[in-house]
């Protein structure tokens, strides 16, 4: 059943599905059918959930919260205009309020708890009809491990969860989480306080002050992550003394210098 929900000044069509390939894929299909509508898609599981670079986001039933919402067209922004870092901050803040735990962020869009990834964010854009950009944000949060699930061995020691004991969110719980997250992100985009959010993000970002590596034109680059620009880009100090600005891509932390953090 599709439900209409007002969030801030925007009407969203909310749909909760049992299982999908990917909530992002479903959201794209919804926009193709009617580009004028805003959507929030929630699913109990994903058979082909994915993150950046097409990497699998394991999304079993009775284990997580999986959702995608399409950004209202009144926001004239792109994927690079702070959207991803704002969404990551919103997810971290939501987790903190609901669990009283203190999540951290790995630049740019992964949320960690106790040294393990508990949430991922993926901002994507499509152009349907031609020339019309439609932005959407996919969010996956690991709530608790489903012990009945045949979890891939290579993920078992990498995935973190908000709760140690198995907790299955009800349909109403998932709806409440989804609406709250969408409301939080829309509110962030509306109030034009990007500098405040940059500061809040930096206090949670454990990538800063660490030695990191990344790929550039096929070469492995190494430097110290120092700060964020006003757009959420990562400023890295190279050994030569020059600054390298990263606005996307995958980084690996080579050396932790903050006490208490684990790789």
Explain what this protein looks like in three dimensions.
GO terms for molecular function: biotin--[biotin carboxyl-carrier protein] ligase activity; transferase activity. This is Biotin--[acetyl-CoA-carboxylase] ligase. With 263 residues, the protein is of the alpha+beta class. It folds into two domains: 202 residues, 2-Layer Sandwich (BirA Bifunctional Protein, domain 2); 44 residues, SH3 type barrels. 24% of the residues lie in helices and 32% in strands. The chain is built from five helices and 13 strands. The strands form two sheets. It has an eight-stranded mixed beta sheet with strand order 1-2-3-4-8-7-6-5, sandwiched between helices. The chain has a five-stranded antiparallel beta sheet with strand order 12-11-10-9-13, with no helix packed on it. Helix 2 packs across helix 4 and helix 2 crosses helix 5. It is globular. It starts with a strand and ends in an 8-residue tail after the last strand.
